[in-house]
Amino acid sequence: MSKFFSIIPCLDIINRRVTKGIKFKDNIDMGDPVELAIRYCEDGADELVVYDVTASAERRSIDFDMVRSVAEVVKVPLAVGGGISSLADMERIFEMGAVKVSVNSLAVANPAIIAEGAKAFGSERIVLGMDPIAGADTNSFPSGYEITTRGFRERSGKDAVEWAKQAVDLGVGEIVVNSVDADGTRSGFDLTITGLIAEAVGVPVIASGGAGSVEHVRDAYTIAHADAAIVAGILHAGVITIPQLKEGLRTFGVSVR
Questions:
Q1: Distances from the Cα of 4 to the Cα of 7, 74, 138, 172, 256, angstroms
Q2: Is the pTM of this model over 0.90?
Q3: What is the pLDDT of residue 24?
Q4: pLDDT over 70 percentage in the chain
Q5: Is the CATH code 3.40.50.880 the one for domain 6-251?
């Protein structure tokens, strides 16, 4: 685990508005992405993630104008994902000021893009986003988790842990584990799959999907051994602020910036 556990707000964007749903369904409007990006940077976010969440499902390119508008105000490391389909897309996003790009559906369909991106820009800039779903037949999927793509809409036929290991071999420098089952529920991260992947790979692993309390974030660190946690809905809704979350973590002995 890294010396400091990182708190990473995530902006899931549809039609240039931040939204939040449960398992990407019944999404509600949570605000303007630029305004939220400014607030979270001022509040002490360690990084920020922006996802164009319907780009892959709609088989279109990421909204570059939206990315640019957010990148212009962000004062912390920015990662961008959703609808990235080529090295040219990656380069364009980096030119806007992002430090990382996240590939998910594209990487499943074309794993070579990971190696190409790592060679062109460095492994530390290529993030694998993965959306595992629990309950898979362990005869076919030894971890019990299968990777889904296109916003949870399609099954990939890939075992989550094996895919994580393959992606690292190809050059991924970081992995975001977003639980399909926990996404938006505020019932806690899926510590099982997050822990399995953290144990299996030698790159930073970020827990995502399900944050509902300080205790949930603590457990991602102490039980699943994640290096960071993505937090979204509870921040957007004002349930907790980043300073409150970090102070709560400190009381549990978790080192945060």
A1: 10, 21, 35, 21, 5
A2: yes
A3: 59
A4: 96
A5: no
